[in-house]
Known about the structure:
A 9-stranded mixed sheet has the order 13-12-14-15-25-24-23-20-21, with helices on both faces. The chain has 19 helices and 25 strands. The relative contact order is 0.11.
Amino acid sequence: MARYIFITGGVVSSLGKGLASAALGALLQARGFTVRLRKLDPYLNVDPGTMSPFEHGEVFVTDDGAETDLDLGHYERFTGVAARMTDSVSSGRIYSTVLEKERRGDYLGKTIQVVPHVTDEIKQFLKVGDDEVDFMLCEIGGTVGDIEGLPFFEAIRQFSHDKPKDECIFMHLTLLPYLAASGELKTKPTQHSVKELQSIGIAPDILVCRSEHPIPEKERSKIALFCNVRKNAVVAAYDLQSIYEAPLAYHAQGLDQAVLDAFNISPAPKPELGKWEDVQDRANNPEGEVNIAIVGKYTQLEDAYKSIKEALTHGGMSNRVKVNVEWVEAEIFDHDDATPHLEGYHAILVPGGFGERGTEGKIKAAQFAREHKIPYLGICLGMQMAVIEAARNLIGVQDAGSEEFDQETGQKRFTPVVYHLKEWVRGNHKVRRKESDDKGGTMRLGAYNASLTEGSRVAKIYGTTAIEERHRHRYEVDIKFRDQLEEKGLIFSGMSPDGRLPEIVEIHDHPWFVGVQFHPELKSKPFDPHPLFRDFVKAAKDISRLV
């Protein structure tokens, strides 16, 4: 049976609960334990898939087709454990399940209440897979005291009492603000946060205190005394140069030891941290740098492209170079020349997105990269825009575009080179979709196989002709233009196993030009960079040395 670690946060949001959870998972792995990480989000959306990237950031997609919070990306990147649908849940999904059961009569006509029905459903979620791993790390989104989070706090309180002693602990992240005027760290916000947690029946076993300054022993003792935790369970979390320093930084502060002590695990296996020492060395000691432009439409919030940025960092690590990412808003050259905005970069990446806004700028970015022989990686919409650009400028389909844009405006303006995907094969059955279907969870989601052309650039990059990658899209490149485009050098080098859906395009006579319909960034890790990103950054590095 798994031991449970519940991670909560207080004082302010965005303290780094996801990173702390992921780093702790990596440290427990380094000691030989198996882990699984989960996220419980208090918002009422059924999943993050329909939420605005400006508000919520990236949607992370699992192999089994769940649209989840971006923290699950952290979990995967740090532990290498593939996230599943059962690793993420929101209040919306919990309430939907409870109401469905009530409609079916499962509750035998009883009055449905938050306690016990909602809390019981949360506890059932927590129990899934608890016989598969040594440790289950469960992060509660938001901060303690949030109204919408109360059912989750009550559920984990009950859950800890249902379990035998020493099988559940609570880890609480707080902020220690520094007042420059008085030159001291203030512990009172942490005390109040813990008091709030205690008022709902949860006593933290470990405190992780975010601070910009070293925590003096006096303050550490004060926190331990007034928050009723052991002094060695007050762990400092300082700002880092790179998130990939987190496992070693938390180990240096004794986080993993504090967790083992809280569970009375003694003696504990010594950690093998060589992998993370190598990662930190590569992150902090590059032997050069490259400048890569990300031409996107959600650039105001960098978290909208979180996995892409991290995958580029991983590609940089594997090539011993620092990747300087520049965010370029696609909309600014929708109607202007792209050249002034894109000159000087060693590579261009065009990520995914939805809707017509900014797409003409993305098309121009693909054209600039193609004509100026700049390495180009197009992901999802970025691949579609590269194909539309080629259709317009190489085979003369002047009004080439996407069905998505016509559907958005309700008028026919384009010859659809990209069409609404109405059916595809998943496993041994067909999935069918209509344009009028609900938005949430109705896309081609999750892991799918693809077959690569023998001898193609991508087959050499992957080292195989059979791959599996994660998808998240409603629209697909139309194969009817394939012959015309291939005559002009745009090669369809990756296809779905049935040969119907284009997965990868590339250009032959180009230093590096690849478009992929899937999201390779979701499977990249610092200790195992994705082959496409590794090779893409290598191409940028080669260009930088020619300049």
